[in-house]
Amino acid sequence: MAEITPQVSTGQESIPFWRDGRVLGVLAQIAFLAAVIIATGWILNNVLQNMDKLGAFRCADGSSSFVCGFNFLRIDAQFDIGETTIISYDPSDAFSRAILVGALNTIRVAVFGIILATILGTLAGIARLSSNWLISNIAKWYVDLMRNTPLLLQLFFLYFGVILLLPPIREAVQPFGLPIYMSQRGIDLPWPVFMSSARLWIGFVVLAIFLTWILWVVLGRREIQLGKSTNRTGWAFLTFLLVAVVGWFVATATSGNNQVVLAANTVSAADLAGLESVMQQRLGVNDLASVSQAVSDGTLTQEAVDTAAFTVCTLRDDRSEVNLTAQLRKLNMPYSVKAFNRENLVSEAFAAGDCDLYIANKETLAAAQTAVSGATLIPIGETPVRFSIPSLQGLNFTGGYKLTPNFAAILVGLVLYTGAFIAEIVRAGIQSVAKGQSEAARALGLSEGQRLRLVVLPQALRVIIPPLTSQYLNLVKNSSLAIAVGFPDLWTTSFITLNQSGQSVQVFIIVMASYLSFSLLISFLLNWYNQRISLVER
Amino acid sequence: MTQAKTEEPKSFGHNEEIIVCRNVRKWYGDFEALKAVSLTVKQGEVVVILGPSGSGKSTFIRCINRLEEHQEGDIVVDGIPLTHDVRNIAEIRREVGMVFQQFNLFPHLTVLENITLAPIHVRKWAREKAEERAMHWLGRVGIPEQANKYPGQLSGGQQQRVAIARTLTMEPNILLFDEPTSALDPEMIKEVLDVMRDLAQTGYTILAVTHEMGFARTVADRIIFMDAGQIVEENTPENFFTNPENERTRLFLNQILHH
Amino acid sequence: MTTIGQNSNMRTFRGREVHFNARQFVQENITRRWWLTLWLIILVYLTGVVTWNQLAAAPVTTALLFVLWAVTLTLTAVNEMTRHHNSTTQWLRNNLYSSLTNALITLLLVLLIVAGLRGFFAWAITHASFTTDPEAAAVILEKFTPPGANWGAVIDNMRNLLVFRWPRGEDWRLWFILIWSVVLVIPSQFIFRREAFRKSLIRRVLTGLWVLTPILSFLLLRGVGGAESLIPEVNPDQAWGGFLLTLVIAIFAIVASFPLGVLLALGRRSQIRGVPGWFTYGAAGLLTAVALFTSTFPGLSSAPTTAGKVLAFWPVLIPLVAYLFQRFFKGNVVALFSTIYIETIRGVPFITVLFMSIILFPIFLPPGTEVLSTWRVMVAAALFAAAYLAENVRGGLQSLNKGQYEAADAIGLNTFQKYRFIILPQALRAVIPAIVGQFIGLFKDTTLIAIVGLVEFLGVANLITAQPDWLGVRREPYVFIAIIYFVGSAVMAGYSRRLEAQLGVGQR
Lengths: 538, 259, 508
Known about the structure:
The complex is a heterotrimer of chains A (538), B (259) and C (508). Chain A has helices at residues 21-54, 95-128, 133-147, 151-162, 198-226, 232-254, 272-283, 291-297, 302-308, 319-330, 343-351, 362-371, 405-432, 435-443, 448-478, 490-501, 504-535; strands at 181-183, 186-189, 191-194, 259-263, 310-315, 335-340, 357-359, 376-380, 385-388, 391-393, 396-398, 401-403. Chain A is an alpha+beta fold. In chain A, the strands form 4 sheets. Chain A has a 5-stranded mixed sheet with strand order 6-5-7-4-8, sandwiched between helices. Chain A has a 3-stranded antiparallel sheet with strand order 1-2-12. In chain A, strands 3-9 form a two-stranded antiparallel ribbon. In chain A, α5 packs antiparallel against α6 (232-254) and α15 packs antiparallel against α17. Chain A is globular, with a radius of gyration of 33 Å. Mean pLDDT of chain A is 85; it is low at 1-12. In chain B, α4 (111-121) packs across α5 (127-140), α4 (111-121) runs parallel beside α6 and α5 packs across α6. Chain B is globular, with a radius of gyration of 18 Å. Chain B is 40% helix and 24% strand. By secondary structure, chain B is of the alpha/beta class. In chain B, the strands form 2 sheets. In chain B, strands 6-7-8-3-9-10 form a 6-stranded mixed sheet, with helices on both faces. A 4-stranded antiparallel sheet of chain B has the order 2-1-4-5, with helices on one face. Chain C has helices spanning 22-31, 34-57, 59-81, 87-95, 100-126, 134-142, 152-156, 158-163, 171-191, 201-222, 236-239, 242-269, 277-302, 306-311, 317-329, 333-347, 350-359, 361-364, 373-399, 402-410, 415-430, 432-445, 457-464, 475-506; strands spanning 11-13, 16-18. Chain C has 24 helices and 2 strands. Classes of the chains: A alpha+beta (538), B alpha/beta (259), C mainly alpha (508). Chains in contact: A-B, A-C, B-C. Chains A and C meet through α1, α3, α4, α15 and α16 of A and α5, α16, α17, α18 and α22 of C.
């Protein structure tokens, strides 16, 4: 048959290039690339011209270069930042540090926000499906209200219309009588503080997790061997609890003389009991527990108690102070705290006789003892974790964890807003697991818990994770609205940097790159997790 | 070769070779889907391609109008070589009509719009002429009364007949059928096969991939059996069903017929 | 059920058999799980505390609610035990009193909701002032602790909230646009839905008028010519504000982002034959070499630190980028740049894009070019919206069957015709609900321009609080704006759901 066919080879060489599909494709690509390059080139040229006029890319030696444009980052920032996360900051620090502080603040908002919004969203999503008509409708109204009004409006309302209208600090609101104080100055919460003996205890907890895991696996194998279920959740939980509690006591007992307090010569005591009797003498009572009763009876004046109270001198935010005051409170001893910003100020105040008690780490106190005659070191115990309770000292709360009004506004605002979107995702995810699946699981004789854990959850999660990822990304991006409520996040500090230095292009490059890397990081993590759980499917 | 196009061979004389494939090869990644397939179809011939699923028969006929791109070998349709030349591809697509397994009607257009779209925009006909031809072909496939409905309102068999009418209105010389009855309910298969039989008798060149053995036996001039990307056997329907030459063909027919 | 047949336990109530097994009831509602018992104890405690507190705060209401709860609960319980529900008790049994815990939760929530509503209504209505005279308002509000809402501030500033500083004499232009739109919307509801009008002249005329609307609106809003003109030109930076500005920006952004968004979506999905590998790698090699010689080697000697020396070797990243480009984009430059644009915009906050438009936009243009802030913000919003729209459209394109592309190819349509007649009409129709959703988002996000200094809806609210007459009034305008947004978004969301349902029916 071949001999009759027209002589056609693949014939590439004979096609004019303007009709060759392959060539046309590449030509289109090149034309597009050229257009992009021309457009960017035009913009870049304008940028360079404008920047040159401003002298923004000037190097130290007078030449101009893009890299030199970033030299301004080493200059002193000279503006203050209201709050910091992890690292400290001072106006004499460089611009780069100011931006870094902002980035860390953004990370703080993002981490707390994502955790809390997930919890709230999950609860609200489940509530949407509640069999109780009231619960599901309340959840529906919450979701609709949050989703249909602008986030910025919610933030403004929360900040100007709620938090700043809270009572002044002396009349702080205490919800349900808990040691949580809400005032114009923000929200003060009790916060766990880890003492030096916490290391030992955490070691025990890690051991407990390990043992529990082993027990879980061993019991699981035994269940399969025996062919019937044993109460392995209960046993594992009990093991964990037992080891953790034992560890707690071991850590407490061995920490006996870790912690000491330095008492002035006006306070002669050998231990905590001695301190107690000093206070009993000062107040002229036999039982310190009766003091508050006596004050309200009028047999003792508040002034007398305030005068008698121990003055505790300490470095601000010292962990051992939390330990000491917790013990003083337990024994009903009145005290007031004088916190200083620098170590030498504390020892000077102690030497001047301004303090009854001086609390710091053992070595500092030993050094301070030699400088003051008659001062004695009193051993006090410690537990691995102490709760630092906020208490009103003068015009501010000390102790605990302080949410500034700005941080509280952006955090609560983002959590409430994002929580509503997550609720819808969770609801849709749970509903997507068809009823038949649950019925099949029941037919197999799985228990309610097993049904949720083994059948419903894995399938719902696969539907939930992708949209959840974009909600987390939205939360991070929306955290840039912090500028509206004065919280110094990445964008706020960058914007101030921009205004102070005038280096707009560079600052925008840094900001965009930072947000893009946050976004990439979150999508990467959740994509990885999503792939892991979808592997279960195939 | 350039002359081949300018001459515009529009001859309808029999024994003219209208589709010529030589050593057509195609890979999907490492998988070789077509292993040097050669086939020549004459004007007016009805060729049925049979074969187990995954044998490359669909891929092969989809290469003929460039829905898939072959990587080696030559395909010449009606004297036009199928190369990367975009003009040749356009010309071949005008010559070759295709009917799909899933009909692929455009759900947002009415039946009439489905049919007249290409004549108006590709053949550049006036709307009146396009609609007149469309109604002619709708009548030929037996559903002129459905012209203003949407595809979603028709049964599967009706949809496939609309798809055939859409193809025919473009006045192609060659018709490719890619398993046209596989997505249909049994009672609708006959109405589509009747139309195809009618077309075969009219003198169209037809290349059909199908599992309808009855159609193959009664209508085909020639039967091609493909397996694993190769043409294993080429035979007349008579010989193919009664006295197949190849062992694999025999096996295939055994599986098909003894069910 | 378990009691049937145990005749000794059988009791009757009004002639009906009573089915109640106390042991089963306790087991199911209290002792089934230890946490259920605990939860019940907590609930009893909470409900008790709340009831007690509410009895003190509002004795009559609380007592009434409690009695109502107790009576309906009893009725439901009796009907349940006698297996003789009417529709009301059946509903109550299923939705409010399905178990002991649910019954308690119902009481608790009813009390809390009523308390909350009482507080809200006291603030918003009974203790509120509605007068626009600030002194009279102060007198009214003084009578209540806590004082109610000062709605006078909102009423007094209604014009500011809606149109801010739009020139008073030119109001007819706004009315014209409003009436024009309403006049078009009403017949559209009818004509665009009916198959009979599909090819009709009236439908074409209506489509034409719709296309004309944005142009006409812009002309009226912007004005042409000097003071003697019928519609004198206004300066948008000053004359556009309040709700008007919000609407203008949101509508402009969604309309203007459409062409770019569709192109970006097509670009990202494009199957154009890519640049061949040898070309990419060749170009990358060349670039690397040039960069090494012009940047790295001179920089190496001057770099003061080790880190600087390492950084100087940045050109080695070029081949890596080239590899990634070939690996993931198969040499398709169009897809690469579309993807970069879409993902960059979607990866950064809107607020930074807005600030960019205010601060960087002038730097991007030739020196000395002046552009009004309003234009800059509108362009930024449109460019931002385009990236999100592109992803929506891409979703629509992906939802199309591959067969549609093949059929279009097979009948001989060229690429342009294929997209114009087959692909885009279907893809865009499929994403209309998503686009409406995006518009709602944009409508809400427009509030962010208040931060960059343009006075839109929310920006006016922030100005009201600084007016001497209404110093410190904040919650009232915020609540007013929230209501407008809530209603607006809810209406659009409802419309989108209806569209979705219709589209679902229309297609096969």
